[in-house]
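Table S2 (continued). Query chain:
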Amino acid sequence: MKPLDHLEHLDKHLVDELAQVARETVRDELREQTRKQRRKAALYAASGALALYAGAALALAVGLALALGLPDWAAALITAVILGAAAFVLRGMARPSRPGGEHAAGGRFTGRGEAGRTAAGGMPYPPAPPAPPAGAAPGTVPPRPTDDPDAPHHRA
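Corresponding output:
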């Protein structure tokens, strides 16, 4: 039985060595990928900073051009209003105008029909319950449909 004990030791040693090689390979690969991502992130950050300065220079040029025919304070005010309006338009393009404005099916909210009514604050009213059946007595509650997702499901 001694040779088998020796083989078990070799198998364990081989598994440990393979695991260490795999760890080192994965670690080196992750380091390389991280290095590439850092470089890409730094380039994006530099690009954003330069775009910010370019926008500031453009705003300054607009203000100086307006200052040729207007007082300086009026040119600065008009430039600020133009930039504010552009920011408002871009914000509106970036997100929907009211909460709950899109249906679950992915369509855009149209504001028409019963489901389109909204309460104060922009939240939609829930849909009206269905009318009671024609032969039902006043004040009775119709039974819940079986396909209601809130109804408990029993398995036999």
